[in-house]
């Protein structure tokens, strides 16, 4: 959603660059918000719809341009949150370069942006297609390379789940070494019912944890990389997802946060549907005989280039001190991400429901 409200920015544009991915609140043990008779305490009752609406309309306004780390909209959002912590009487816990306490925790981040001249070529016995980055495909990668070239044939492995202890193994009888692994998003189902135990099924259905688990299985099978076939809901979100994955951030010396160990490529439904015509199973239409199979007559060649830059980021951190003398040195950490995915041309990805 895009909240509609004009924002007066005259007092909210700050010159000092502050760029970040997270807002964190450290909270010591405090009393419950519910009173002895079940009613709300004055503190809890003070949280009102108008106040929350004002926060959301500001943070998700066009003026903040999607709060992309490294850009001015995020700088304003970070200063805004620091000012709210200050007004609420929360204590700063970080120290700046001058030795003063501050709400801003400086963090160095490596930002890697994929270049739109990256290409994916699909070669079959019949023809050779060159796909356009963004419109036809997009990708993410572990590490922080300047460029990469990967080429190999394909194997389709259903949902890409390797759980032999739970009676499901999409890799059974499949040699994935040195090949691209193609799998479907989500957890395996039979007539609409998950075939795995509930907790395990939820982990595979998760966009983040599912990518990690399936990517790890492909990596251990020796795959070059993975090609993820979205479900219909995600295909309909193509424009948002391709933009959200354009920039990857990592801490120096670490892989990008929350990423699988393999290169991940997403191809749009039109090209995938054409590729899987006359195959035993079509993962786009979900029709045919569900099974894993090799596609030795198809070669995927990815040529990817990146722009890598070093940016200085800042978490926004504050503390509510506890009052119990026995446990006041115990801490509860409450976190949320302050950043969002920025803009694409004139379109702002406001981030109202996720995450203002």
Your description of this structure?
The chain is of the alpha+beta class. It contains eight helices and 22 strands. The strands form six sheets. Strands 1, 4, 5, 6, 7, 8, 11, 14, 15, 16, 19 and 20 form a twelve-stranded mixed β-sheet that branches. It has a two-stranded antiparallel sheet with strand order 2-3. Strands 9-10 form a two-stranded antiparallel ribbon. A hairpin with a 4-residue loop joins strand 17 (281-282) and strand 18 (287-288). The longest helix is centred in the N-terminal third of the chain and has 16 residues, at 72-87.
What does the main sheet amount to? 12 strands, mixed
Oligomer: single chain
End-to-end Cα distance: 11 Å
Computed over alpha carbons, the radius of gyration is 24 Å
| Range of helix content | 10-25%
**Count of alpha and pi helical runs:** 8
Mean pLDDT, all residues:
85
In percent, how much strand structure appears in the residues? Answer: 25-35%
Detail the poorly predicted runs: 1-32
Structural class: alpha+beta
Tally of DSSP β-strands: 22
Spell out the helices and strands N to C. EHHHEEEEEEEEEEEEHHEHHEEHEEEEEE
Envelope shape: globular
